[in-house]
Amino acid sequence: MLFGDEADAHAFWKDKEWKTYAVDLVRGNGKKQKLVRTMYVRARTAKGAAECAKANDWSTKPKPYYVPRLAGPRELGCTPSEG
């Protein structure tokens, strides 16, 4: 079940070939996970987005995990319009 921005993201991107993914760069594992930063990537698939983020990441070691998710409208700075 999806809520809020995540539900809006899935509804908006479902019929688009190219999507915008927010790829979270995470270090550590278990309770010691830490979000380093988020990269925004255009790709056809989540796997492609993670690969693109990894190829363009300038982080020093240790390399983070790349966790892709669809970017939602509020995260991308969109606001509802009066219609």
Name the average pLDDT.
88
Uncertain parts: none
Estimate what percentage of residues fall within beta strands: 25-35%
Which percent bin holds the helix content? 10-25%
Shape: globular
H-E string? HEEHE
Our count of helices gives 2
Question: Largest sheet at a glance?
Answer: 3 strands, antiparallel
Class inferred from helices and paired strands: alpha+beta
Radius of gyration: 14 Å
- Cα(first) to Cα(last) distance is 29 Å
**Number of beta strands:** 3
Q: Strands across the major sheet, in which order?
A: 2-1-3
Please characterize this protein's 3D structure.
The protein has 83 residues and is α+β, with helices and mostly antiparallel strands. Helix content is 24%, strand content 30%. The chain has helices at residues 4-13, 46-55, and strands spanning 19-27, 34-43, 65-70. A three-stranded antiparallel sheet has the order 2-1-3.
What's this, in brief?
The protein has helices at 4-13, 46-55, and strands at 19-27, 34-43, 65-70. With 83 residues, the protein is of the alpha+beta class.
